[in-house]
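Narrative of accomplishments. A recurring question from our advisory board has been how the design workflow behaves on a single, concrete structure rather than in aggregate. To address it, we present the structure tokens for one chain from the evaluation set, followed by the sequence designed for it. No filtering or post-editing was applied between the two.
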């Protein structure tokens, strides 16, 4: 049977691997508020996630000061390539193949999970590498900090409007998120614009 110390250590490691740990503190607060808070059995993990997100505030501030203006002035050219398909249909495989082309850039795991402190977090890559699983849990595909990743993970860490939040809040997600589709047209447009701004910024 696992003792208390081992249990806390396990929760901390799980929190380190949780994408929301690298969300902005403000976005984490919005997400928790929007989807109804934390289930009691996950309170320790959630506290670790909140702590990790909070400690990332200086990194995000430095990155915004150092690179914010340059990022805002960057033109997206040429047009990006979008890979669209149903889950489990081979999109990851195609993504990995396309990423082999040295003429193309792609979103890496590190960039997807730390979208607002990516440049500043580079010196910590060796430490972060130790906590990243070598295989994806859902399909056993090789995984690393430099593996191609979906940009939607980054959007989920920047704004509270992402379908990936369903992974974290399965009990309340459907009701809360799909209520958005019933909003008045002007509020729905506001939601779309916030998502679009997060995506384009990223």
């Amino acid at each position: 049977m696992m003792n208390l110390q081992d249990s806390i250590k396990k929760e901390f490691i799980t929190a380190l691997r949780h994408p929301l740990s690298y969300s902005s503190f403000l976005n984490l607060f919005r997400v928790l508020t929007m989807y109804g808070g934390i289930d009691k059995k996950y309170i320790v993990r959630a506290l670790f996630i909140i702590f990790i997100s909070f400690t990332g505030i200086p990194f995000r501030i430095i990155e915004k000061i150092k690179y914010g203006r340059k990022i805002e002035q960057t033109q997206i050219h040429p047009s990006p390539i979008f890979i669209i398909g149903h889950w489990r249909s081979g999109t990851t495989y195609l993504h990995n193949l396309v990423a082999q082309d040295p003429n193309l850039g792609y979103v890496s795991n590190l960039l997807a999970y730390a979208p607002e402190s990516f440049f500043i977090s580079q010196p910590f890559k060796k430490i972060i590498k130790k906590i990243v699983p070598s295989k994806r849990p859902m399909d056993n595909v090789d995984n690393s900090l430099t593996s191609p990743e979906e940009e939607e993970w980054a959007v989920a860490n920047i704004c509270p409007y992402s379908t990936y939040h369903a992974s974290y809040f399965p009990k309340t997600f459907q009701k809360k998120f799909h209520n958005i589709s019933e909003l008045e047209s002007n509020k729905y447009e506001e939601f779309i614009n916030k998502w679009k701004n997060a995506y384009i910024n990223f």
